[in-house]
């Protein structure tokens, strides 16, 4: 009774309701087309280019939001690439409104870091996981896949196949969104604070 499982504390903004239409309008994107959010991590420019081209060949309606984070080299290469010229692509570096981009997306391609996963679950955002670091991230992926909140991609080819298949299956995407919600713990920070406060007051 000195231990409680709270989930990973995340910022409350990841559980707030926002207007997907407004976000996409502000970005100059189409609300009627699906959005794939790609969040950096370990993804290389070469693999990203393969994934982009592979998806475009199978579904020309997909819109892309790419967030490179602190990977300045990746951002620079993307800004100078053919990807940047596509009117259905938006590229960002390090940002502080990731929750808005998550809320606007139908699917995310990302790594399996604990905080990222917790944020995606809170946003009810199905995941395609790539570039898995052995150890903790493997456990994260197993948990996500077991609860059908995401899928694992072993390669760029796997990622393309998984993404195109999911984006063409709105019913399965909705089920995955619901599964995300079932295992999300958006109130983890509040639960943790309440638990600590209760233990302190009991002493």
In short:
With 203 residues, this protein is of the alpha/beta class. The chain contains ten helices and six strands. The radius of gyration is 18 Å and the shape is globular.
Could you characterize the architecture of this molecule?
There is one protein chain. The protein is of the alpha/beta class. The chain is 50% helix and 12% strand. It contains ten helices and six strands. The chain has a six-stranded parallel β-sheet with strand order 3-2-1-4-5-6, sandwiched between helices. Helix 7 links the parallel strand 5 and strand 6. Helix 1 packs across helix 5 and helix 2 packs parallel to helix 8. The protein starts with 19 loop residues before the first helix and ends with a helix. The model has no long low-confidence stretch (mean pLDDT 93).
List the helices and strands and how they pair.
Layout: H1 20-27, E1 35-39, H2 45-58, E2 63-67, H3 72-79, H4 82-85, E3 89-92, H5 98-104, E4 107-110, H6 114-122, E5 127-129, H7 136-146, E6 150-152, H8 156-167, H9 170-183, H10 188-202
Parallel strand pairs: 1-2, 1-4, 2-3, 4-5, 5-6
Helix pairs in contact: 1-5, 2-8
């Amino acid at each position: 009774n000195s231990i409680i499982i709270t989930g990973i504390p995340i910022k409350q903004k990841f559980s707030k309701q926002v207007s997907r239409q407004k976000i996409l309008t502000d970005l100059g994107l189409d609300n009627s087309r699906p959005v794939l959010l790609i969040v950096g991590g370990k993804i290389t420019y070469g693999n990203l280019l393969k994934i982009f081209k592979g998806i475009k060949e199978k579904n020309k309606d997909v819109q892309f939001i790419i967030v490179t984070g602190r990977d300045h080299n990746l951002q620079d290469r993307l800004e100078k690439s053919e990807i940047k010229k596509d009117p259905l692509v938006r590229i960002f570096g390090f940002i502080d409104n990731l929750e808005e981009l998550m809320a606007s997306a139908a699917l995310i391609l990302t790594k399996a870091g604990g905080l990222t996963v917790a944020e995606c679950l809170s946003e009810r955002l199905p995941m395609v996981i790539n570039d898995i670091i052995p150890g903790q991230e493997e456990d994260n992926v197993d948990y996500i896949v077991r609860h059908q909140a995401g899928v694992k991609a072993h390669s760029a080819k796997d990622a393309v196949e998984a993404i195109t298949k999911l984006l063409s299956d709105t019913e399965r995407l909705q089920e995955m969104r619901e599964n995300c919600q079932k295992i999300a713990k958006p109130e983890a920070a509040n639960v943790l604070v309440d638990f600590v406060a209760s233990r302190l007051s009991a002493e």
